[in-house]
What we know:
Elements: E1 8-15, H1 20-34, E2 37-44, E3 52-60, E4 72-77, H2 83-86, E5 90-99, E6 115-119, H3 121-127, H4 134-146, H5 151-162, H6 168-189
Parallel strand pairs: 1-4, 4-5, 5-6
Antiparallel strand pairs: 1-3, 2-3
Helix pairs in contact: 1-5, 3-4, 4-6, 5-6
Amino acid sequence: MTQQNATRELLIAGVGGWGIVTMGDILARVAARQYKHVVWFPSYATAMRGGDSECCVIFSDDEIPSPLIYLSRTVIVLGARRIKDFEDRVYPAGLMLVDTTGLQDEHRVARTDIKVQYLPVMETARRQGSIRNANLVMLGAYIGATEALPAQLVAAEIEHRFGGDGRKDVVEACQQAFRQGITLAADAGR
């Protein structure tokens, strides 16, 4: 079981249609089984596909004073153009997980007071057969890097969310993407 002596905060940023909100929803549902208080707050532009999308997830055994945060201990960014928007939203000594798709030198994080893991999330999902599972690769990377929630509970929620009659192959692809993300984080942490 996850050690529950701290509040966990996570900001997820990306582009609408890439599963940002889904990733936050999965985390919130799993956290609700482990913590007394959970906030899941999605936000997206009117253009649901291709517009800016973000999600805030907070879980704690202590009461959560606000569903909105500006700074977070962990920030995930899918989409290089969103890096600069969120670089300053990580607490000092915090963690930023960044997908390397479209990453140019001008997008790289300039701060030296945070830990940054650059991960080939989209490329990993593409190699496994479905770029649509990139969010699950990043979800795995988050769990692998932070151990914020038990991986087996997240995997069970993925099966619940994407499973059903005749969906065995879909669930296996989703689970494989999640496991691959855990591996990416482990490799990046070495």
